[in-house]
Design a protein that fits this description.
This protein is mainly α. It contains 14 helices and no strands.
Length: 366
């Protein structure tokens, strides 16, 4: 009898879980859209035509969608890496530096090894980036697990060290002598993903990212190791009482997180740039931390917010081209949308409380 009663409730329960991030995202986007209309009107432009022009630039046709997707792939992978560490109770704020060393490792393997068979060369580039980013993050996780070094501080400071190290290499020992700017040699063609949509930078790396999203979701939500990492993050004391090796869980979760961030950096090289240069990933690591926080460190939530973020960024560029409104305005809008997402539950509770009080007053008057 118990089995018959629980089966019908399984699907609605899962749908309810999926509806939560969707509802939070929709509330935030609606709030941001209303604010955007007000700001655009203050600039002297018609809100709706201007916003539609931005959306057409981001999603108007196959080329626009492909362009928006191509920009967001490295960001999505990096955000998944940050979220993975957050879920395990490790606050990896070093995504920017890990992305940079991953990009540098992929650029070195792509330029100085080969040319090889394309699939093998790409695999080597991705593996080098994952190992480099994972090793850096695992080392910082080891400091936390065995020496008690605060990972927020260590990962934050590591950004400056790693970015400056990569900048030195790009301007010094590994600089391409044919270019004035600080960049490495161009990678071989066999180290570049093939383009799948003409006139865009959307490459077959899309399939790799799709596989990484599924693998990250399974590892985090369905695997035994993922359960141990989640338990370590939510209740270390209980996890230790259950026989989970806390130190090992922290180090391995950071290793996976850093590997994903490094892979995000490798996609910048192998999908679009074709080399490492000093500004290759500026800001992506910090955006990834933001998306991981807003997405509640869940793979589905991060995926949804990465999509919203990419559309907003692309739309802002479209609005700037059509009207001349500076794209920096998008930063203000994105900030407001994120605040709205975080404050959604409190705002809805406040509105509900006001409605309840208003109803009580009306009933007394009647």
């Amino acid at each position: 009898m118990t089995t018959l009663e629980t089966k019908p409730t399984a699907l609605p329960h899962r749908l309810a879980l999926l509806a939560r991030p969707v509802g939070r995202t929709g509330f935030a986007v609606l709030t941001g859209a209303l604010l955007a209309m007000g700001l655009i009107a203050l600039q002297g432009y018609a809100p709706m035509p201007t916003m539609l022009a931005g959306l057409r630039y981001a999603l108007g046709d196959a080329v626009a969608v492909s362009r928006t997707l191509a920009w967001g792939l490295p960001l999505l992978v990096t955000a998944l890496g940050v979220a993975f560490a957050f879920r395990a109770g490790m606050f990896n704020i070093g995504a920017e530096g890990q992305l940079y060393v991953g990009a540098m490792a992929a650029a070195i393997v792509g330029a100085y090894i080969g040319p090889l068979f394309a699939g093998l060369h790409l695999l080597l580039c991705l593996a080098a980036a994952a190992l480099t980013g994972g090793a850096v993050a695992a080392g910082l996780g080891w400091l936390r697990a065995h020496w008690g070094v605060d990972e927020v501080l260590s990962t934050l400071l590591s950004n400056y060290l790693l970015v400056l190290l990569c900048t030195y290499l790009a301007n010094g020992p590994l600089r391409d002598p044919t270019r004035q700017s600080g960049s490495t040699r161009e990678v071989h063609d066999s180290a570049m993903f093939p383009v799948i949509v003409d006139q865009t930078q959307l490459t077959a790396g899309l399939y790799v990212v799709a596989a990484l999203v599924l693998a990250t979701w399974w590892l985090s939500e369905r695997s035994i190791a993922g359960y141990r990492w989640r338990m370590t993050g939510s209740s270390p004391g209980f996890a230790a009482a259950m026989g989970i090796d806390i130190a090992r869980a922290r180090v391995t979760s950071m290793a996976v997180s850093g590997a994903l961030c490094g892979l995000g950096g490798s996609l910048l090289v192998t999908c679009s740039q074709g080399r490492f240069w000093t500004e290759i990933g500026t800001g992506i690591g910090w955006d990834a931390v933001l998306l991981a926080l807003v997405g509640r460190s869940r793979p589905i939530g991060v995926l949804a917010w990465a999509g919203v973020y990419c559309v907003l960024r692309a739309s802002a560029r479209g609005v700037e081209q059509v009207t001349g409104i500076p794209s920096e305005l998008s930063s203000v809008l994105i900030a407001v949308i994120i605040v709205a997402a975080v404050a959604r539950s409190g705002a809805i509770g406040l509105i509900t409380d006001w409605a309840r009080r208003w109803r009580a007053v009306r009933e007394k008057q009647q």
